[in-house]
What does this fold into?
Amino acid sequence: MSLALLLHMTITFTPASRAPMHSPSQVKRDFLKQWLKCLQMCSYPKKEMSILERKKAIKLSADVAMASTRNATSCWSLALIAKASKEGNNKCLVEHLLDQESERGKMASTFQLAILNKKLRSKKIIKKSCSVRRVKKLAPRMVLASSVAKRLVKNRTQVLKSLVPGGESMDEFSLIRETLDYIVSLRVQVDVMRCLANASDLLNCKGVHG
Amino acid sequence: MELGKCAEARSADCGEKAEEIGAEHFQLGEEIRTLVSAPPASGSSFTALLELPATQAVKLLHSPELEETPRAAELPPVFPACKLSVFLGAGNSPETGSIPVKQELTDSDSPPDNSLPLAADPMAVDGDRKLTKRKEREKKVVKGPAKKSKTAAACEADREKLPYVHARREKINARMKLLQELVPGCNKISGTAMVLDEIINHVQSLQRQVEFLSMRLAAVNPRIDINLDSLLAAENGSLLDSNFSGIIMPSMWPEGQFNVNRQQCPQVWHQTVWGREEGNPNFITPENSLLSYNSSANSASLHSNQLKMEL
It folds into this structure.
């Protein structure tokens, strides 16, 4: 049973779930379509791949598909596509996909990539200079509850920024919105992939036992 | 009022400005210059404010009061941005003399609030002290200040800028509430840090699930070959919002074998699908020869009521 068949099956059989933007099944169908296209492009270059390569291809296609369903409306999707197209192997794949979709998305992704690179570079410079210049004065100071809480929040914000693609270049305000979007898309992705995996398992079991 | 207008005009830029501030952080004097060049709006009072303490800010910057960690340079920009915006509209008289910062630092008594240093600062203020604290505060924003000074100075300015700051905080709080509703189990948690913890855990778990599922899918299928043309042809006519959730349920099954007999029971599948989707015959035809789903022989608990209805 090929993966694409399962994908196609799940197109019609996606269970309804919550998605704030469009109808849930519509989002899932879009994602599946994109994923299908991505996988098709993945499979053309070589026919036999190791399991790890397959896994990477699957994940990459899923990520790119997920990001392209947003149609460049959210920052993280652009960042994800930009990151994906940075690697040499994936570049033509991603570009091919985006060419099919929209030129605007592609341009946005390259633009975003440039911005991200610039900001990340500058931040790295700052970090290095700060660690060199700054003399840490560990003067004992009364620890205020608010300062402790602020530090906790700040730490967690940093972690969240590292999790969400493209999060480093966002302020906290838009980070929250991007996180919302990202969580929803991740859920769609997980639901669809889980459906597919279960369907494939089911069919395999039936094939064995039937 | 000009103060409010200036503040609001820069509200959208605070985030980017804080970024720029962080970006130029490596030289303290340059930071002030960046601040001067950054604000797009007129802010004559702001620039005056900045130009004046340029020399004194450098002096104050090197004061031993500052003990913040380097990471503080990358404060979540909303916090310093809020406080920075507080200063923007402060068109005050130029500073006359340097006022000891320590005194102001120790005077503050900020209540526990992780969003803003609260008001109700009983300190009496005159214009000079205000100005000094603001300049000292602003450069601390730039540099990553000690928290006490932040709270002391920000308390002062907050009282003036309270509505604007509150509006921004309310927006952030509204979004945090949305996040809380989205992430399961977050509704009962109070406190931004714990909610952020839960959100981080949720995102990490979702990402791990994606990895795991992709590995699982890679294991199931020998290769990713796609018979696309027929599928896509059928796809257009068969995209219906099916509630046929029985075949796909989020339960874990043991990994099946690879040998799927494709010729097995295409008829059964055909009948099954036909029974379900009377209005979409297009879907059926390309699938018959390819699928080997034996629904009649199914005794698995996975199948839902819909499937059993057809059998």
Chain B touches chain A through 116 residues (CB under 8 Å). The first helix of chain B runs from residue 2 to 9. The radius of gyration of chain B is 31 Å.
